[in-house]
Amino acid sequence: MKNNSKLKLLALSVVIGSVVFYLGSSFKKHTEWVQLFNGKDLKNWQIKITGHELNENFANTFKVEDGNIQVRYDEYDTFDEQFGHLFYEKPFSTYLFAVEYRFVGDQVKGGPGWAYRNSGVMIHGQDPAEMTVDQDFPNSIEVQLLGGNGKDERSTANLCTPGTQYEKDGKIMKQHCFNSNSKTYHGEQWVRAEILALGDSLIVHYVNGEEVMRYEKPQLDPVNGAEQGALLKGGTISLQSESHPVDFRKVEIINLEKYADNPKKLQKVVKKLMAEKRLPKQ
User: Fold this and answer.
1) What is the pTM of this model?
2) What positions does the domain 3-keto-alpha-glucoside-1,2-lyase/3-keto-2-hydroxy-glucal hydratase occupy (predicted)?
3) Helices in 115-195 by DSSP H: which ranges?
4) Torsion sign, CA atoms 182, 65, 37, 87
5) Which positions ≥6 away from 214 have C-beta within 8 Å?
6) Which CATH number fits domain 33-274: 2.60.40.1840, 3.40.50.720, 2.60.120.560, 3.10.180.10?
7) pLDDT in tens, 189-220
């Protein structure tokens, strides 16, 4: 009897262990990072630069070198407000997106003062094919990326709203840019920004594993005197060119769309994902 009891307990422990392993493996399988940048070229990306037609990579603004997406202005005489965006070809709605970035070198001649060490990730954005030739920015929610000047405080993963607005604490916010509570990152260090976007309900910004901002109901600017605009359930993701050289690496996403119709499950998955603090290697 004792031996049988021991065998039964052993068998039960194996079953429980197998279930735990399966659940863990299943979670990992459905929450793996998918690389949007292959480290070699700009396949699956589209380019739109102000004053130029779609996919005209003026002056080789966007290129891939040393395994990074590089935004450079070596072939520019002057910036001349030629703002650029590099769009991933597929739109997303419910996801956790991440990019690691660093500012390098000097701002190009003619770049606006506010664009010093300034770039961004545009989410819930407009299709680049719908942009006019002279349009500066896609209608989108901008997660503004800023670098420090070596002495002053300057937050990153801020929020700007080209053609959009949002709600915070139940109030519609029309202020164009709103600062996060992040630390300042000086020099040419790598910084990891993560963006949790849950359709048209909630967006949260993280920097080096720390939450720095959250807001609700991203929406287009209202029309015909309305207070609220059309809610943005999703859209394109793009990386900015705003006159200061910047490198991007590890452009990646976890698509959470499969959980969008199950709020309780989505909440559990998000909680587990954000329990891990992911830091960039320098």
Assistant:
1) 0.90
2) 32-253
3) none
4) positive
5) 202, 203, 204, 205
6) 2.60.120.560
7) 999 999 999 999 999 999 999 999 999 999 99
